[in-house]
Amino acid sequence: MRLRAEPQGTPAGLPAQVIVGSTVLIVPGLRDDMPGHWQQLLAARLERVVSVPPMGRTDLGCERRVAAVEAAAQSVDGPLLIVAHSAGCITVAHWARRTRRVVHGALLAAPPDFETPMPEGYPTPAQLAASGWLPLPRARLPFGRSVVAASRNDPLARFSRSAQLAEAWGAELVDLGEAGHLNPASGHGEWPQALELIATFQ
């Protein structure tokens, strides 16, 4: 199933703090702490939220990130909704193969294509393979529902590759249009569609 999410302004009538039925688990990508990132702005608006701390690119080890997701997920009682960005999506796919934690749903935004060389400054496929990221998990995600939100001009993944991952994961595909990598470098900042997409899990 493919949905189209056109860029919009902040949804009218949304309170400063948004209450959803599940605890939201924020899973970042390979970035350092970034206060202007949409995930951190989103976390500030949610009543029930747990965030996996950003771990940067100094240590690319996939395993410690998977362990951090497991620790955070097990700290939550009740329904769990995952909101992951970039490499966080791949972390979640690795974690899903070994956890027994029930997950209500997952919003996976801008998953990168780690199997294809990325722009200069990003890890190479060889570095990623040595750090445990490859091969990319392609098993269906064992969550209640999964949504992959992908950009048409993401420098870290062609849209067709994101669509292939969504299909393999059994996820709905949301077409974000030209949103870059959905990070501050591409103008996000606030990402109002995140709240709209989270609302569809209720």
Task: Sum up the structure in keywords.
single chain, 202 residues, alpha/beta, seven-stranded parallel beta sheet, 6 helices, 7 strands, 26% helix, globular, disordered N terminus
Characterization of this structure:
By secondary structure, this protein is of the alpha/beta class. The protein contains 6 helices and 7 strands, in the order E-E-H-E-H-E-H-E-H-E-H-E-H. The chain has a 7-stranded parallel beta sheet with strand order 1-7-6-5-4-2-3, sandwiched between helices. Helix 2 (62-74) packs across helix 3. The two termini are 18 Å apart. Mean pLDDT is 90; it is low at 1-16.
Protein topology:
Layout: E1 2-4, E2 23-27, H1 38-43, E3 49-51, H2 62-74, E4 80-85, H3 87-96, E5 105-109, H4 125-130, E6 146-150, H5 159-169, E7 172-175, H6 193-199
Parallel strand pairs: 1-7, 2-3, 2-4, 4-5, 5-6, 6-7
